[in-house]
Amino acid sequence: xxxxxxxxxxxxxxxxxxxxxxxxxxxxxxxxxxxxxxxxxxxxxxxxxxxxxxxxxxxxxxxxxxxxxxxxxxxxxxxxxxxxxxxxxxxxxxxxxxxxxxxxxxxxxxxxxxxxxxxxxxxxxxxxxxxxxxxxxxxxxxxxxxxxxxxxxxxxxxxxxxxxxxxxxxxxxxxxxxxxxxxxxxxxxxxxxxxxxxxxxxxxxxxxxxxxxxxxxxxxxxxxxxxxxxxxxxxxxxxxxxxxxxxxxxxxxxxxxxxxxxxxxxxxxxxxxxxxxxxxxxxxxxxxxxxxxxxxxxxxxxxxxxxxxxxxxxxxxxxxxxxxxxxxxxxxxxxxxxxxxxxxxxxxxxxxxxxxxxxxxxxxxxxxxxxxxxxxxxxxxxxxxxxxxxxxxxxxxxxxxx
Amino acid sequence: xxxxxxxxxxxxxxxxxxxxxxxxxxxxxxxxxxxxxxxxxx
Lengths: 402, 42
What we know:
The structure holds 2 protein chains of 2 kinds. Chain A is an all-alpha fold. Chain A has 21 helices and 2 strands. Chain A has helices at about 5, 10-15, 20-40, 45-60, 80-90, 95-100, 105-120, 120-125, 130-135, 140-150, 155-165, 170-180, 185-210, 215, 230-250, 255-270, 270-295, 300-305, 310-335, 355-365, 375-400; strands spanning about 65, 70. Chain A starts with a helix and ends with a helix. By secondary structure, chain B is mainly α. The chains are: A mainly alpha, B mainly alpha. The interface of A and B includes residues 133, 246 and 386 of A.
């Protein structure tokens, strides 16, 4: 028995094409880096730690499946033949998760149920027009990136899925790319999740660049009335009616709408056992499996795809434009309200719940300790989830007709 | 040009639906508050 057959993970590096072998080594190192950055909380640890481990393991654990075939026993995302799939389901240990949870969008819906449970729609009900206006401005990236992506050679479906990275909503990008860009959904989703962490690090600089310090320190004056208190009945009524209306308008995105509003309805109904189940079990187990599955999907062939580089650039462009759009929206509300509004709230229109809302409050607190914009920011933030779901619904419905 | 007009129409449609949702929220609140006040009065 020779060395190559004994330690196949190492041995396959010597028999594969040099570019594949090199990409495997790069991905192993990248996986280690993701775990490190996750531990340091520079990137989102809930996703990055399982994803980093997945990347390391899938690129290390390559073996000889037969005399002529090299691969892994993790999963095969490209299998389409039913008989072949039945065989692979019994061998590749993550294949059941991929086939029954990932490729049909179930995992995105479970994450969305969890987001519904942790979201308080009270602020949306207090300031619906302000929130929706800002959130629609913050969709600038999801709109402008579409023609750019198509112009650089992506198909309409791929362009739509890529532009949704600007919505900064991971499950939504996963859902849309599965529906519109099946061949490219792995790199699109990976880039989307990697970039979500950049909102935390990059948006504060964008805010400081576009909003002068004196405006960042504005304290919003609100008239306190009893009518401002939103009851759980009112929130529940909103959940069921908004769910119905959005499902009627965009049936193709109805699983996402149902998941979000059901999660929120459970929170508002006071069913604490279900709320705990959705938050503690569904949300975290789905996030964990999502991170792990994404990591395992990062095989060397993925990074060697020539579409990766433009995808990386377009992802940044989409997020940057959305951030700028959100701030423009903040300025519009600032001018409409007779300068009694803090435009920093605009960044929260980018629907990365609750990161961008936290970023907005943190940036305001750097200037003054007496300005509390979190309620407005959460309104824009949750409206951002709704508007991104609306844009996703429109893309998923209209793009196949193009 | 076709791409740009498509993207623009997606945006307009999104804006219109968002405005409808916002108006719906106001309507829901108005109706719930009206009915609950009636209940208290009766």
